[in-house]
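ZP: hey, is the adenosine-5'-triphosphate complex queued? I don't see it on the tracker
AM: it wasn't, my bad. submitting now with these inputs:
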Amino acid sequence: MRRPEAVPADAGAARRRPVHEAVALAAAISHDLQAPITRLRLRADLIADRGLREHIVADLERVAAMLQEQLDYVRSGHLREAPVPLDLAALVESVAEGLLDLGHRVEVQGSLRGRYRGALRALERVLQNLAVNAVVHGGGAAVMRMSEDDAAACILVLDEGPGIPPAMLEQVFEPFYRLEEARSGGGSGLGLAIARNLARAHGGEIRLSNRPGGGLQARLTVPQSRGRSA
Ligand SMILES: Nc1ncnc2c1ncn2[C@@H]1O[C@H](COP(=O)(O)OP(=O)(O)OP(=O)(O)O)[C@@H](O)[C@H]1O
Ligand SMILES: [Mg+2]
Protein backbone atom coordinates (compact mmCIF):
# COMPACT_ATOMS: atom_id res chain seq x y z
CA MET A 1 0.00 0.00 0.00
CA ARG A 2 1.34 3.42 -0.96
CA ARG A 3 1.99 5.49 2.16
CA PRO A 4 -0.12 8.60 1.85
CA GLU A 5 1.55 11.89 2.70
CA ALA A 6 -1.09 12.73 5.32
CA VAL A 7 -0.42 9.66 7.41
CA PRO A 8 3.20 10.19 8.46
CA ALA A 9 2.19 13.75 9.42
CA ASP A 10 -0.67 12.35 11.49
CA ALA A 11 1.53 9.65 12.97
CA GLY A 12 3.17 12.41 15.04
CA ALA A 13 -0.20 13.32 16.50
CA ALA A 14 -0.82 9.62 17.14
CA ARG A 15 2.33 9.48 19.26
CA ARG A 16 1.36 12.59 21.23
CA ARG A 17 -2.03 11.21 22.23
CA PRO A 18 -3.48 7.71 22.35
CA VAL A 19 -5.00 7.41 18.88
CA HIS A 20 -5.94 3.82 18.36
CA GLU A 21 -3.72 2.05 15.83
CA ALA A 22 -6.81 0.71 14.04
CA VAL A 23 -8.02 4.26 13.43
CA ALA A 24 -4.66 5.25 11.93
CA LEU A 25 -4.84 2.20 9.69
CA ALA A 26 -8.41 3.12 8.70
CA ALA A 27 -7.13 6.57 7.77
CA ALA A 28 -4.39 5.13 5.56
CA ILE A 29 -6.93 2.90 3.82
CA SER A 30 -9.39 5.80 3.46
CA HIS A 31 -6.70 7.92 1.87
CA ASP A 32 -5.73 5.22 -0.63
CA LEU A 33 -9.36 4.58 -1.57
CA GLN A 34 -10.06 8.18 -2.50
CA ALA A 35 -8.44 8.07 -5.96
CA PRO A 36 -10.16 4.87 -7.20
CA ILE A 37 -13.50 6.13 -5.88
CA THR A 38 -13.06 9.37 -7.79
CA ARG A 39 -12.32 7.32 -10.95
CA LEU A 40 -15.40 5.15 -10.36
CA ARG A 41 -17.48 8.29 -9.88
CA LEU A 42 -16.36 9.59 -13.29
CA ARG A 43 -16.95 6.24 -14.99
CA ALA A 44 -20.40 5.95 -13.43
CA ASP A 45 -21.44 8.96 -15.53
CA LEU A 46 -21.08 6.71 -18.59
CA ILE A 47 -23.79 4.27 -17.44
CA ALA A 48 -26.71 4.66 -19.83
CA ASP A 49 -29.47 3.43 -17.49
CA ARG A 50 -30.40 6.55 -15.55
CA GLY A 51 -31.84 4.80 -12.48
CA LEU A 52 -28.83 2.54 -12.12
CA ARG A 53 -26.45 5.48 -12.66
CA GLU A 54 -28.11 7.54 -9.95
CA HIS A 55 -28.01 4.66 -7.46
CA ILE A 56 -24.33 4.01 -8.10
CA VAL A 57 -23.41 7.69 -7.93
CA ALA A 58 -25.34 8.09 -4.66
CA ASP A 59 -23.58 5.08 -3.14
CA LEU A 60 -20.16 6.29 -4.27
CA GLU A 61 -20.82 9.71 -2.80
CA ARG A 62 -21.82 8.09 0.50
CA VAL A 63 -18.61 6.06 0.56
CA ALA A 64 -16.52 9.14 -0.33
CA ALA A 65 -18.15 11.12 2.50
CA MET A 66 -17.45 8.30 4.99
CA LEU A 67 -13.80 8.16 3.95
CA GLN A 68 -13.46 11.93 4.25
CA GLU A 69 -14.98 11.80 7.74
CA GLN A 70 -12.43 9.19 8.84
CA LEU A 71 -9.55 11.28 7.53
CA ASP A 72 -10.98 14.35 9.26
CA TYR A 73 -11.06 12.42 12.53
CA VAL A 74 -7.43 11.33 12.37
CA ARG A 75 -6.39 14.85 11.40
CA SER A 76 -8.43 16.51 14.15
CA GLY A 77 -5.77 16.01 16.86
CA HIS A 78 -3.83 19.04 15.74
CA LEU A 79 -4.69 22.21 13.85
CA ARG A 80 -3.91 22.31 10.16
CA GLU A 81 -4.72 26.00 9.77
CA ALA A 82 -2.74 28.74 11.48
CA PRO A 83 -4.73 30.30 14.36
CA VAL A 84 -5.96 33.80 13.52
CA PRO A 85 -7.86 36.43 15.50
CA LEU A 86 -11.53 35.68 15.00
CA ASP A 87 -15.00 36.83 15.88
CA LEU A 88 -16.27 33.78 17.75
CA ALA A 89 -19.77 35.20 18.21
CA ALA A 90 -20.06 35.81 14.45
CA LEU A 91 -19.01 32.21 13.86
CA VAL A 92 -21.78 30.99 16.17
CA GLU A 93 -24.28 33.19 14.28
CA SER A 94 -23.13 31.91 10.90
CA VAL A 95 -23.41 28.25 11.91
CA ALA A 96 -26.92 28.93 13.21
CA GLU A 97 -27.84 30.77 10.01
CA GLY A 98 -26.58 27.87 7.91
CA LEU A 99 -28.91 25.51 9.74
CA LEU A 100 -31.81 27.98 9.58
CA ASP A 101 -31.31 28.09 5.81
CA LEU A 102 -31.75 24.32 5.79
CA GLY A 103 -35.08 24.68 7.59
CA HIS A 104 -33.93 23.84 11.13
CA ARG A 105 -35.02 25.83 14.17
CA VAL A 106 -31.95 27.36 15.81
CA GLU A 107 -31.90 30.35 18.15
CA VAL A 108 -28.77 32.27 19.20
CA GLN A 109 -28.63 33.91 22.63
CA GLY A 110 -26.03 36.07 24.39
CA SER A 111 -22.91 37.76 23.08
CA LEU A 112 -19.11 37.77 23.50
CA ARG A 113 -16.72 40.67 24.02
CA GLY A 114 -13.41 38.90 24.59
CA ARG A 115 -10.61 38.28 22.12
CA TYR A 116 -10.25 34.88 20.53
CA ARG A 117 -7.76 33.24 18.21
CA GLY A 118 -8.26 29.99 16.48
CA ALA A 119 -8.46 27.97 13.32
CA LEU A 120 -11.59 29.31 11.68
CA ARG A 121 -12.73 26.22 9.81
CA ALA A 122 -11.91 23.94 12.73
CA LEU A 123 -13.97 25.99 15.21
CA GLU A 124 -16.78 26.23 12.68
CA ARG A 125 -16.70 22.44 12.45
CA VAL A 126 -16.91 22.10 16.23
CA LEU A 127 -19.95 24.38 16.42
CA GLN A 128 -21.52 22.76 13.37
CA ASN A 129 -21.14 19.23 14.74
CA LEU A 130 -22.72 20.20 18.07
CA ALA A 131 -25.56 22.16 16.48
CA VAL A 132 -26.31 19.43 13.92
CA ASN A 133 -26.45 16.88 16.73
CA ALA A 134 -28.93 19.09 18.57
CA VAL A 135 -31.28 19.34 15.58
CA VAL A 136 -30.81 15.75 14.33
CA HIS A 137 -30.73 13.79 17.61
CA GLY A 138 -32.40 16.36 19.81
CA GLY A 139 -35.80 16.65 18.31
CA GLY A 140 -35.58 19.61 15.96
CA ALA A 141 -35.03 22.88 17.82
CA ALA A 142 -31.72 24.09 19.23
CA VAL A 143 -30.45 27.06 21.22
CA MET A 144 -26.84 28.27 21.00
CA ARG A 145 -26.19 30.35 24.13
CA MET A 146 -23.00 32.39 24.52
CA SER A 147 -21.46 33.72 27.72
CA GLU A 148 -17.94 34.35 28.97
CA ASP A 149 -15.76 35.08 31.97
CA ASP A 150 -12.24 36.55 32.12
CA ALA A 151 -10.68 33.33 30.93
CA ALA A 152 -12.94 31.76 28.34
CA ALA A 153 -16.07 31.76 26.23
CA CYS A 154 -18.75 29.26 27.05
CA ILE A 155 -21.08 28.20 24.27
CA LEU A 156 -23.99 26.00 25.28
CA VAL A 157 -25.79 24.05 22.58
CA LEU A 158 -29.15 23.07 24.04
CA ASP A 159 -31.92 20.86 22.73
CA GLU A 160 -35.17 19.40 23.98
CA GLY A 161 -34.66 15.85 22.78
CA PRO A 162 -34.26 12.55 24.64
CA GLY A 163 -30.80 13.37 26.03
CA ILE A 164 -28.21 10.62 26.55
CA PRO A 165 -28.24 7.96 29.32
CA PRO A 166 -25.80 9.17 32.03
CA ALA A 167 -23.54 6.13 31.63
CA MET A 168 -23.06 6.98 27.93
CA LEU A 169 -22.25 10.69 28.25
CA GLU A 170 -18.50 10.07 27.82
CA GLN A 171 -18.77 7.01 25.60
CA VAL A 172 -20.47 8.94 22.79
CA PHE A 173 -17.17 10.81 22.29
CA GLU A 174 -15.47 7.58 21.25
CA PRO A 175 -15.00 7.27 17.50
CA PHE A 176 -17.82 5.38 15.75
CA TYR A 177 -19.86 5.13 18.97
CA ARG A 178 -23.56 5.82 18.45
CA LEU A 179 -26.63 5.07 20.51
CA GLU A 180 -29.14 2.80 18.83
CA GLU A 181 -29.16 2.94 15.03
CA ALA A 182 -32.77 4.11 14.73
CA ARG A 183 -32.08 7.21 16.82
CA SER A 184 -28.75 8.00 15.23
CA GLY A 185 -29.93 8.93 11.74
CA GLY A 186 -27.20 7.31 9.68
CA GLY A 187 -24.22 9.42 10.82
CA SER A 188 -20.75 7.93 11.08
CA GLY A 189 -20.39 8.43 14.84
CA LEU A 190 -17.28 10.59 14.45
CA GLY A 191 -18.85 14.03 14.93
CA LEU A 192 -18.29 14.35 18.69
CA ALA A 193 -14.83 12.74 18.54
CA ILE A 194 -13.78 15.28 15.88
CA ALA A 195 -15.38 18.19 17.74
CA ARG A 196 -13.68 17.35 21.06
CA ASN A 197 -10.27 16.87 19.44
CA LEU A 198 -10.54 20.23 17.66
CA ALA A 199 -11.80 21.98 20.82
CA ARG A 200 -8.88 20.57 22.82
CA ALA A 201 -6.45 21.62 20.09
CA HIS A 202 -7.62 25.17 20.94
CA GLY A 203 -7.10 24.64 24.66
CA GLY A 204 -10.85 24.25 25.05
CA GLU A 205 -13.15 21.41 26.04
CA ILE A 206 -16.58 19.91 25.35
CA ARG A 207 -18.75 18.34 28.03
CA LEU A 208 -22.20 16.84 27.68
CA SER A 209 -24.89 16.73 30.35
CA ASN A 210 -28.61 16.12 30.51
CA ARG A 211 -30.75 19.17 31.19
CA PRO A 212 -32.95 19.07 34.28
CA GLY A 213 -36.12 19.55 32.25
CA GLY A 214 -35.12 17.14 29.48
CA GLY A 215 -32.84 17.43 26.48
CA LEU A 216 -29.07 17.54 26.10
CA GLN A 217 -26.61 20.33 26.91
CA ALA A 218 -23.29 20.41 25.07
CA ARG A 219 -20.90 22.86 26.74
CA LEU A 220 -18.02 24.14 24.63
CA THR A 221 -15.34 26.32 26.22
CA VAL A 222 -12.81 28.30 24.20
CA PRO A 223 -10.08 30.19 26.10
CA GLN A 224 -9.58 33.89 25.46
CA SER A 225 -6.42 34.71 23.54
CA ARG A 226 -5.13 37.43 25.90
CA GLY A 227 -1.64 36.57 27.07
CA ARG A 228 -1.44 33.55 24.77
CA SER A 229 0.82 33.47 21.76
CA ALA A 230 -1.36 31.02 19.79
N1 LIG B 1 -28.02 16.17 21.09
C1 LIG B 1 -28.08 14.85 21.22
N2 LIG B 1 -29.16 14.23 21.76
C2 LIG B 1 -29.23 12.89 21.89
N3 LIG B 1 -28.24 12.05 21.50
C3 LIG B 1 -27.14 12.60 20.95
C4 LIG B 1 -26.98 14.01 20.79
N4 LIG B 1 -25.77 14.25 20.24
C5 LIG B 1 -25.20 13.05 20.04
N5 LIG B 1 -26.02 12.05 20.46
C6 LIG B 1 -25.72 10.61 20.44
O1 LIG B 1 -24.31 10.45 20.40
C7 LIG B 1 -23.95 9.70 19.25
C8 LIG B 1 -22.60 10.15 18.74
O2 LIG B 1 -22.69 11.46 18.20
P1 LIG B 1 -21.72 11.88 17.02
O3 LIG B 1 -22.00 13.28 16.68
O4 LIG B 1 -20.34 11.51 17.42
O5 LIG B 1 -22.11 10.90 15.81
P2 LIG B 1 -23.38 10.95 14.84
O6 LIG B 1 -24.12 12.24 15.04
O7 LIG B 1 -24.16 9.68 15.02
O8 LIG B 1 -22.72 10.90 13.40
P3 LIG B 1 -21.86 12.07 12.70
O9 LIG B 1 -20.51 11.45 12.51
O10 LIG B 1 -22.59 12.35 11.45
O11 LIG B 1 -21.81 13.23 13.66
C9 LIG B 1 -25.08 9.90 18.27
O12 LIG B 1 -25.17 8.83 17.34
C10 LIG B 1 -26.30 9.94 19.19
O13 LIG B 1 -26.68 8.63 19.51
MG1 LIG C 1 -23.09 14.06 14.98
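AM: back. DSSP finds seven helices and seven strands in the chain.
ZP: great, adding it to the tracker
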